[in-house]
Amino acid sequence: MSVSTTLARSTVRQLIELGVQEFVLSPGSRNAPLSIALYQAEKKGLINLHVRIDERGAAFFALGISKATGKYVPVACTSGTAVANYMPAVLEAYHSDVKLLLLTADRPSRLRRTGSNQTTLQAGLFGEFVTNSIDASSPIDIRDLLEKSGPVHINLQFDEPLLKSDNKDWLAGIQPLTVKQSSHPKGTLSISTKKNIVIVGHDRAGIEVNEIESFADAIGAPILAEDPLVFDGAVAHAPIILSDERVREALSAELVVVIGRTTLSRSINSYVAGAKHLMVIDPRMENIDLSRTANEKHFQIPRVSQAVARDEKWFELWAQYEAIASQAVEELPQWSEGRALALLASEIQNDTALFISSSRPIRDLESFASPRSGVVTYANRGLAGIDGNIATAMGIATFHEETYAVIGDLAFLHDLSALAQPTRDPLTIVVIDNDGGGIFSTLPQRGVEGFEKIFGTPHGQDLAKIVAGFGISHEVLGSTKELQIAMRRVHPGLHIIIAKMPERERNADSIAKVLGKYKDLVAL
To answer: What is the DSSP secondary structure assignment for residue 452, as one 8-state letter?
Structure first.
């Protein structure tokens, strides 16, 4: 038995015993012992093995599966640049506290710095962006590595011979193992204030919806949610409501509770910055966001010693401004990016998964959609990048009966390689095609000299032809009615809707018009 075969088998067996079922693999030579072990485990029905040819996309695919399952998902690759391609997904997993397990094949340590082919300094490559890292030349105990959330790196030194095999049934007698999960005891709060508000970041810091709602009820607080599709009682159009400084002052709270991170709206962050008393609840403060500041910090939602009576006047005040914002939203053109996201949010069926890409789509959803519940939502908000969005959505689709994804055109082009292996699971991707970086037209750099070249970056591509080149089902549409009809069709696998939008400047002008209308109505 070769040392490499023993190392690969020990790693796979332990992961199976720890309850890991989903594995993602990219082909290569140095990781052959691991590839063979994974194939043998799948053949016995112990795991599901997903093969993705591009390591960068493979890591995001595994990230999507981990988001959907809440479990560690190993992604395995060969040595050299293959490992470096994991970095974007590692950063996203680190900052969003997602359980991603990197199994990177390496040459033995004696070959490092010797000019040996495909040999680099893989051990420790991901630095502080993994919660645990080990460089292994022989079998190790994996359990201690998985005690925390976030990405973990196991660098496996596979020496020659790589393909030594035997007839031993190394998967016989699988025994469940347990991982110790550290947790903090809940604190207890005594709340005396009446004007309280709960602001929830997009991923809710991993906290369940019903726990957040119960907490908000207990302290008599309205909810502002970056994700309006899981809290049906949340205040609608919060970024618009708080866009006016006079309104922020009128709605000044005695206690602001932020759950998770608020990463989307400058107006909401301005409101948070002006809080008289700020409480932050987020388990990531223990390992990642160590320098967050607040008057109070908690790793999980504390108990409330005595419920606070709801201040009806406080809720009515928020409702008044919500009504004004709703009136202003009517200024949006019938076919616009904001209308498209609002329509999608209202039409999508309960229990459907929805992945929303960064940049304008997720902001339009927050600003213009009406609150509801019943949708399982996902987004890569750890670092809010536009890379790996298609691959992440495909990974999420693996664990849902039906999945939608809304992706901007630049993010779509950024991850085209994922289309080389289209998912067979029901996934509809709506591409917001405005020929470039639409978000920049809504930011201060709009109008600077050279804007189109360095910010607008028009791509000029016919996305339908590109998708057709991959042989993927698709359609092009240009109205809310067409989108509404398209969303009522069911597709067995991957289907792409290309929503052709008016020019970017017009969309930016329409958003500015909504905000202007809101300010005018507030003044009245």
So the answer is: I
Share of the chain above pLDDT 90, in %: 87
Least trusted range by pLDDT, from 19-28, 47-56, 107-116: 107-116
Residue range 165-178: average pLDDT? Answer: 86
Q: What is the pLDDT of residue 182?
A: 65
Nearest to 510 by CA among 240, 254, 257, 315: 240
SS3 163: coil
| Of 207, 205, 200, the residue nearest 227 (C-alpha) | 200
Q: In this structure, what token pair is assigned to residue 76?
A: 């395995």
| Confidence (pLDDT) at 460 | 95
Whether residue 169 has pLDDT greater than 80: yes
Cis preceding linkage at 492, omega within 30: no
Alpha carbons 393 and 379: distance in angstroms, whole number: 9
Provide the CB-side half-sphere exposure for 113 (13 A, CA): 3
Summarised one tens digit per residue, pLDDT across range 272-323 is 999 999 999 999 998 899 999 999 999 999 999 999 999 999 999 999 999 9
456, HSE (Cβ side, Cα atoms, 13 Å) = 18
User: In this structure, which amino acid lies at residue 42?
Assistant: E
Q: CA 137 to CA 75: how far, in whole Å?
A: 19
| Cα 435 from Cα 505, distance rounded (Å) | 11
Return all residues near 290 (Cβ < 8 A) that are at least 6 apart.
Answer: none
The percentage of residues in the chain with a pLDDT greater than 70, rounded to a whole number, is 99
In contact, 66 and 354? CB cutoff 8 Å: no
How much is the pTM?
Answer: 0.95
**Nearest 5 degrees, angle CA 435-CA 439-CA 445?**
110
Report which secondary-structure segment, H or E, holds 391: helix 389-397
Structural tokens at position 225 = 């949610």
Tokens linked to 506: 């017009």
Q: How far apart are CA 440 and CA 256, in angstroms?
A: 30
Helix (H, G, I), strand (E, B) or coil at 270: helix
Coil, strand or helix at 403? strand
* DSSP β-bridge partners for residue 22: 48
